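Thread: quick sanity check before group meeting

JM: Hey all, I'm pulling together slides for Thursday and realized we never actually wrote out the predicted structure for the chain we discussed last week. Dropping the sequence here so it's in one place. If anyone has concerns about the input, flag it before I start.
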Amino acid sequence: MATIKISRAKSCSAAIDYAKGRDKLSESDKSWLIQNGVPIDTVDALDSRSVATSGVLVDPDYAKSQMKQTRELFQNTGNTEAMRVIQSFSHEDLDSLNPADWQRCNDLGNELAQRIAPNHQVAIYTHIDGTGHMLHNHIIINMPNLETGKKYNHNNDWQRVCDIANQISREHGLTVIDREQSPAERRTMAERQLDAKHEYVWKDDLRGRIDKIMNDATISSYKDFSARLAKSNIVCT
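JM (edit): ok, ran it. Output follows.
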């Protein structure tokens, strides 16, 4: 299943620099790839955090200068130069250890970009680092529409983008979150910030372990349920 996060970028160049992450793929991430079977020559060829890149109406290698020229052409001013969309995939759908899935992830991000922001310059950078090593795209959308010059309308856009992302997932045979059956959990600002950086969120870990036990059809009593919780280091008091 794919999850979506959206934020505004005051500096488009800074957002692109982070997404490209030139020379930023850590040695620990490279070691993880090699230890788990990714060919050494494939890993040695990685020179940045982005393991696959593409662009819509822009060259991802020159996106900073090309997007800046567009903003200047349309006299784009204000506190927001670009929108950032992070599209993350579960290991069930895409394998971080399969280089073919790196490109597949980027292709899915490119397709999402074209649907959510037609006539906009968009650069897509695919990462495998972060907690859990889940494949995820950093999608940078330049604000001006190339036909109208109007800015990308980002107000309350999360649900629209999620719906489009889910539709793309269905079309490609990937899993989709059933939000009617699984209502969103409330999160603190600190938890959202940790999740945005792909860092460990202990409540998410706890929920995941409990949900896994609750979905086990072999458990038929509260006693069994409590015993399984204990085995997962969850103590009921």
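AS: nice. The chain has a mean pLDDT of 85. The CA atoms of residues 44 and 171 lie 34 Å apart.
JM: adding both to the slides.
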